[in-house]
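pipeline: protein-struct stage 2 | run 1193 | Dynein light chain
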Amino acid sequence: MADTGEGKKEEADYKRLHSFPLIRHSDMPEEMRVEAMKLCVTACKKYSTNNESAAKMIKEMMDKKFGSSWHVVIGEAFGFEITYEVKNLLYMFFGGNLAVCVWKCS
C-alpha cells in the first residue's frame, strides 16, 4: 500500500516540474498560436481529470474566436494523421505527457 502513495507523489512531482506548455509543432500565426496555447493550458488545468470536457471547452472557444470547424484531441500516447487547413494546426504537450492537438478542417 505504501508504494501507491509514493507513486502518486512521484507523478505529482513530475507534473509540477513539467507544468509549462511545450509546442511540438505549429504553423499558426503568432497571435493565434499564443491565444490557442493559453486556452489549452487553461482548459487542461480546469479539467485536469476530464480530457473530454477540456477538449470541448477548447473547441467551443476556438470556434467562437476563429470561426467554425475546429477539432481537438487531448490524451496520452496517441498518434495521428490528419488533413487540416494550412496555418491552423497546433500540437503541444502540457503537464509532462498530456498531448493536445488542435486543428481546423472545413
